[in-house]
Amino acid sequence: MGEQKDRMLRGELYRDNDPELVADRRRAQGLVDEFNLTGAEETGRRDEILRQLLGKLGEGSWIMPRFQCDYGYLIEMGSNSFLNYDAILLDCAPIRIGNDVSIGPRCQLLTALHPMEDHEKRRQRWESAAPITIGDNVWFGGGVIVCAGVTVGDDTVVGAGSVVTRDLPSRVFAAGNPARVIRQL
Length: 185
Hints:
The chain has helices spanning 3-9, 19-36, 43-53, 119-123, and strands at residues 14-15, 56-57, 62-63, 67-69, 75-77, 82-83, 87-90, 95-97, 102-103, 108-110, 112-113, 126-129, 132-134, 139-140, 145-146, 151-152, 157-158, 163-164, 172-176, 179-184.
């Protein structure tokens, strides 16, 4: 493994134009393109492609096309979980989706970060990433955005259009921009 990929996986600043990372993204994009071109009746082929692409795909889990990701191998989905249409998972750090999770259409899970205060490093295209963890039996309404470094606890529901910028505990309903706990469940 090269230095930049190692830095990325450790959550340090790295350059995404590294040839190894570019090759990894091209491999993933080829599989994503193939997945997105499958027909509705090709459920077996979709599952086969996802098993090549993702780090883990639990029994009974599925994703609807269009689907986009950076690397694929950093995404783990538990059993009986579902990603609806137009999901975007920027997996520069691990994304772990628990069991029995339902993620609505056009949701985004974004692990990528860019230097905020070091303007020169940002200009030079340095970036980092922080993992996202989604607990068991979580439900995201359509259009939810989850930012880097966030953990969502078990049995939590996030309202449509919410932007989750910080951890959410288990068994709550959260909504808004930024998402905040509305009530206990």
